[in-house]
Write a structure and sequence with these properties.
Elements (H helix, E strand, L loop, with lengths): L26 E8 L3 E7 L8 E6 L4 E6 L5 E3 L15 E3 L10 E6 L7 E7 L5 E8 L11 E4 L8 E4 L4 E5 L2 E4 L11 E5 L8 E6 L5 E7 L6 E3 L5 E2 L4 E7 L8 E6 L4 E7 L5 E8 L5 E7 L8 E6 L11 E5 L5 E3 L14 E4 L8 E6 L4 E7 L4 E3 L2 E3 L7 E3 L5 E6 L16 E2 L2 E2 L2 E2 L3 E2 L1 E4 L8 E7 L11 E7 L5 E7 L1 E3 L16 E2 L3
Parallel strand pairs: 30-41, 30-43, 32-42
Antiparallel strand pairs: 1-29, 2-3, 3-4, 4-5, 6-7, 7-8, 8-9, 10-11, 11-12, 12-13, 14-15, 15-16, 16-17, 16-18, 19-20, 20-21, 21-22, 23-24, 24-25, 25-26, 27-28, 28-29, 31-33, 33-39, 34-35, 34-40, 36-37, 38-39, 40-41
């Protein structure tokens, strides 16, 4: 039996409201990809090349797959538009049969009002294309602008599962999703997010009921069962028009906290976790947008603290095309800065924050409802650490023939002041080419003493066909990041032979500040 202890509304402290000038622009480059009539956005590596791709649900019509070329620029995957789901909501990505193929799949809720919502499972082929596998009713109506599902391994069997905004639970099991226990929520939710809120190592679920003006419910998972029990202090009532959720450790005490936009009060509520999943409203940050909706969290300014990016669902005010940036102090407080990345039209109501171009810094992607595009704001490049590399180890002239297939070896060399084995293999790009995959799964990198200096180097094989080189090029540039997020750059001389390959837009940046390796 699930009890619903009530919590009375708390008096909220208002966090700083004056916008502070940013020390330097955090985002300096905007690119756009036409898509039609976007409503929502989600991200994941859909073609398994190591780059984060984007999914866009369109107004009553389709889901569009945008593949990342590794530089943070996107293009529609030919033949990938999904038209089998009427009025699709924001797609969620999961691996529902990882023991078989480890290929990302999709779950998309059809919010075809006034018909009851249905959930569609679409199986991926590993190239960014998806085919409908099955569908089933989940109840509820409407919600194409909402995130109607959350994905995690709720029953501990190694397969991803899905919890829907109606409380329905489905367990991943190969080609289908098996019905699980129902979570007894008060009413279908506007947004749902999964995370380990009680610190037991198992994913829990938060539901936001905006039809109750301001009500959140947190359900804690019973480890390895797929069952849930409501957390002490839930439901939690505060605010007026709660919408989008984002979870991070905002006060850096080791517990997962929560932020939620309030479209009526025009700001963001911050709820700090007191331990065990006991969330307490602890502050409110006003934003200038009349209808703040989209919300994402990342360390936007590189100071080690979680920050927030807040979008708008409106077009009638001066901030209807802007994303507000709220910088965290690591203690649970936030301050809005003057910088506001803007789309050309209006309505950036769905936001993704992630490193889209492998420079070690989080970027922003959002939708522009008025102009029908996905807008990407690339983070100002951080300083690079210069590292030594060796293209074609053992070769003196480093000959690369354009148009050839296979892999090209490149070594990142360790020195007295740098350990190459700290490099994240999936981040390595040589002249724009990603690392090849062993069996299409693991990056083809290994730890070897390439230069025989008794230090372990990182030897990787990159996809030769993806090299962005021309016959006149004499230098190949490598970009990578360490597991700790440090941006790296190295270069080696090459001799390029063969016919001219089409040059893709250059993504190599040469910042004024370069940190040499001792």
């Amino acid at each position: 039996m699930v009890r619903h202890p009530m919590v009375s509304a708390l008096v909220l402290s208002f966090l700083p409201v004056l916008a502070l000038p940013a020390a330097a622009a955090l985002f300096t480059e905007r690119s756009e990809t036409p898509v039609g009539a976007p409503l929502g956005l989600s991200a994941g590596d859909l073609d398994r090349d190591g780059d984060l791709d984007l999914l866009v649900n369109q107004d009553f019509a389709s889901v569009t797959v945008l593949l990342n070329d590794g530089s943070g620029r996107f293009a529609q995957q030919p033949g990938s538009v999904i038209r089998s789901v009427p009025s699709p909501s924001v797609p969620v990505i999961g691996s529902f049969n990882p023991r078989k193929d480890k290929i990302p799949d999709l779950v998309v809720v059809s919010a075809d009002w006034p018909s009851p919502n249905r959930a569609f499972l679409l199986k991926g082929d590993g190239s960014g294309r998806f085919e409908p596998q099955t569908f089933f009713a989940i109840g509820g109506v409407g919600g194409a602008i909402c995130r109607l599902a959350a994905v995690s391994d709720f029953n501990g069997d190694g397969d991803d599962d899905v919890v829907f905004n109606t409380g329905d639970v489905r367990f991943g099991s190969g080609s289908t999703l098996i019905e699980g226990p129902h979570v007894p929520i008060l009413l279908e939710a506007f947004d749902v997010v999964a995370g380990d809120f009680d610190g037991d190592g198992h994913p829990d679920v938060v539901f936001n009921h905006n039809l109750f003006h301001g009500t959140l419910q947190l359900f804690l998972s019973v480890p390895d069962t797929g069952d849930f029990i409501e957390a002490p202090g839930s439901p939690l009532r505060f605010g007026d028009g709660l919408e989008s959720l984002a979870a991070a450790d905002f006060d850096e005490d080791g517990d997962l906290d929560l932020a939620v936009t309030d479209i009526s009060l025009r700001g963001v509520h911050v709820l700090l976790n007191q331990g065990g999943g006991r969330l307490v409203p602890s502050g409110f940050v006003p934003v200038p947008a009349q209808y703040p909706r989209g919300l994402a969290t990342a360390d936007l300014d590189g100071d080690g603290h979680a920050d927030l990016a807040v979008g708008s669902a409106n077009s009638d005010d001066s901030y209807g095309n802007a994303i507000s940036l709220l910088l965290g102090d690591g203690a649970g407080s936030f301050t809005r800065i003057d910088e506001s990345p803007r789309v050309a039209g209006a309505g950036p109501q769905s936001i993704v924050s992630a490193d889209l171009n492998w420079d070690g810094a989080p970027d922003l992607a959002t939708i522009d409802q008025w102009t029908g595009v996905v807008a990407v704001f690339l983070h100002t490049p951080p300083p690079f650490m210069e590292v030594a590399i060796d293209v074609l180890p053992g070769s003196d002239d480093n000959v690369i023939r354009l148009g050839s297939q296979g892999s090209l070896p490149v070594a990142i060399l360790s020195t007295e002041g740098f350990d190459a084995t700290t490099v994240a293999p999936e981040s390595v790009r040589l002249a724009g080419a990603p690392v090849s995959r062993n069996g299409q799964e693991d990056p083809a990198c290994s730890s070897e003493d390439v230069d025989r200096d008794h230090r372990a180097d990182l030897l990787c094989k990159v996809d030769k066909a993806a090299l962005q080189l021309n016959v006149e090029d004499t230098v190949a540039v490598l970009n990578a990041t360490t597991f700790g997020g440090i941006a790296l750059r190295g270069q080696d001389t090459v001799r390029v032979l063969g016919g001219k390959a089409p040059r893709l837009p250059s993504t190599t940046r040469w910042p004024a500040e370069v940190t040499p390796v001792p």
